[in-house]
Design a protein that fits this description.
Elements: H1 2-33, H2 41-60, H3 64-81
């Protein structure tokens, strides 16, 4: 079934994006807490990118609560990256 194969491939792709996003978010968090990086542009860019990838994976899996959480993290990271929280 070609339609089923395409859906499965899309779901696998979304799952892979989710794993990449998780590595970015957790990696940035760990690196900042271990003081390998400061909580500056690199930290917020990695967090925002990772959160966007997790949002894509969450939508593909119809996981709306996790999508909402990651959407909020994306907004916070982007606003912080742009200096919007008075840093």
């Amino acid at each position: 079934m070609k339609g089923t194969d395409n859906k499965t491939a899309r779901q696998r792709g979304a799952l892979n994006l989710g794993w990449i996003g998780m590595v970015l978010v957790v990696g940035a968090f760990a690196a900042a807490n271990l003081e390998w990086i400061d909580r500056g542009a690199l930290y917020f860019a990695a967090t925002a990118t990772g959160s966007v990838l997790l949002c894509v994976a969450n939508l593909a899996r119809v996981n709306y609560p996790s999508f909402a959480l990651n959407a909020v993290w994306t907004v916070i990271a982007i606003v912080s990256l742009l200096g919007g929280f008075g840093r």
